[in-house]
Here is the input.
Amino acid sequence: MSDILQDSSGDISIIGNSLVIVTGIEEIRQRITHRLRTFYGEWFLEMTKGVKYFQEILRKNPNATLRDNMLREEILKSPGVIGLENYTFSVDDSTRVGTLIFVAQTIEGNIVAEVTIP
Here is the structure.
């Protein structure tokens, strides 16, 4: 498989007037990040895809167990992921940004990733 490379802000990477293609472990990392940054109902072609941030996570006194289970499930549903070793979610109260750090086992090897969630 292959995918078009996106930079850290999610924009398509173009170098020398050409799209950059990513494969292997970097492709899996990018797909996981994309899944985690997609809000439920955001994509008009598939309204049931995405994480229920507005419905369950970005609210007053969210259920931490439900949040963690939802995010773990989203990682594990990513193509190429076969397991999840470590998982930590924290929120910076001053900036109201969540940070998810995890180690995922994939068909290409282990991925150590950090994903920020606004």
